[in-house]
Design goal:
CATH topology of the largest domain: Nucleotidyltransferase, domain 5
Bound molecules: 5'-O-[(R)-(carboxyoxy)(hydroxy)phosphoryl]adenosine, zinc ion
Radius of gyration: 20 Å
Order of helices and strands: EEEHHEHEHEEEHHHHHEHEHH
Strand content: 15-25%
Number of helices: 12
Strand order of the largest sheet: 3-2-1-4-5
Helix content: 40-55%
CATH architecture of the largest domain: 2-Layer Sandwich
Distance between the termini: 30 Å
Length: about 350
């Protein structure tokens, strides 16, 4: 049998993603983002995201089919993100996926968004090697996973106990008077700044924290520390050294992310680290990841950015893998699960 032709639908946050794969070959990856609509609120507004998915889905599906050069009738299966994510946003994608699967009479696979991020590495090039530790960092999640087998053995090692890493970038950007989304802005402003100028806190890194939260993250204290530091400067009537603050904040985030991810690799004897999520666009994160992974003898994998940010292709690729592994499809009664575990 030839590799299955799968259409994947991703609507867990603010990106409407439609991807089409044939097995592990990418045919289309259409992403419509409602980011701009959220910009004036300084973050993703669930209701706005859900409505935007409703408007974007139809055109995105048509565009993906055209790019892939296939018709709906040729699809072998549909895959859709059923969680975790924003419930209302997820429901829009799930509704569309069920309608398609019913009308086309093809199997439907409900998949986990975080496992989907790992599935991004299936696409093209070299195969996903396991076991691997995966660090997923975006505006919605910051999770550390141990992937022994993509289909049936993915373990959550830790996650953020408050803000996601991308969210921290967005909030600190706001403190610094920079627009949303904050990640790219902070990257830009940090150029020429000294990452060692200010020692901002690394969340959950004290010996007492490491017992219970060895692989967990916390960024809300860091955000507060930056805000206090900036306020103190302003109160004293002194100028705020933007580049140094941005570079020092970014360093704190990058340091804690990679220290914990590489500690997991070492503790568990896993010599592989996969990165995913929109924060992977961060230049310093990539730079430090490459240097520290090399030093630790850990093979680093970073899929292309278009497959790191939320997208439908990774969902389609995971669906194709489930089919190849002989997994039964989902029954049509499933719903959106905003806290779906891996
Ligand atoms: O994966 P993504 O596109 O969407 C979700 O959050 O689901 O990630 C967007 C997040 C935003 O918080 C944005 O500020 C952050 O990723 N981001 C960055 C950079 N580019 C985007 N964070 C740090 N550095 C960047 N260069
Ligand atoms: Zn994501």
């Amino acid at each position: 049998a030839s590799a299955p032709l799968v259409l994947g639908i991703e609507t867990s946050c603010d990106e409407t993603g439609i991807g089409i794969v044939r097995g592990e070959t990418l045919l289309a990856n259409v992403i419509a983002s409602s980011m701009e609509e959220h910009a004036r609120y300084g973050g993703v507004v669930p209701e706005v995201a859900a409505r935007a998915h409703l408007e974007a889905l139809g055109p995105a599906i048509r565009q993906a089919l055209a790019e892939a050069g296939v018709t709906l009738g040729e699809l072998d299966a549909i895959a859709v993100t059923s969680g975790p994510g924003l419930a209302g946003a997820l429901m829009v994608g799930i509704g569309a996926a069920k309608a398609l699967a019913l009308a086309l009479d093809v199997p439907l696979y409900a998949v986990n968004h975080l496992v989907g991020h790992v599935g991004a590495d299936l696409i093209g090039g070299t195969p996903l090697e396991t076991p691997t530790v995966a660090l997923l960092v975006s505006g919605g999640h910051t999770s550390l996973l141990l992937v022994r087998d993509l289909v049936d053995d993915v373990e959550l090692l830790g996650e953020t106990i408050d803000d996601a890493a991308g969210e921290a970038f967005d909030k600190v950007a706001r403190v610094l008077g920079l627009p949303y989304p904050g990640g790219p802005e902070i990257d830009r402003v940090a150029v020429g700044g000294d990452p060692a100028a200010i020692r901002f806190p690394r969340g959950l890194s004290l010996p007492k924290d490491l017992e219970r939260h060895r692989y967990d993250f916390s960024f809300s204290g860091l955000k507060t520390a930056v805000a206090r530091w900036v306020e103190a400067r302003q109160d004293a009537g002194e100028p705020v050294p933007l580049a140094d603050v941005a570079a020092s904040f970014r360093e704190a985030v990058v340091d804690v992310l990679l220290t914990k991810a590489l500690a997991a690799c070492r503790d568990l004897g896993v010599p592989r680290l996969l990165l995913g999520g929109g924060v992977v666009a961060n230049r310093r994160l990539r730079e430090v990841a490459e240097a520290r992974a090399a030093e630790a003898g850990v093979a680093l994998r970073i899929p292309p950015l278009s497959l790191c940010t939320d997208n439908g292709a990774m969902i389609a690729a995971l669906g194709a893998r489930l089919i190849t592994a002989g997994r039964p499809p989902s029954t049509l009664g499933f719903g959106a699960d905003s806290t779906l575990p891996v």
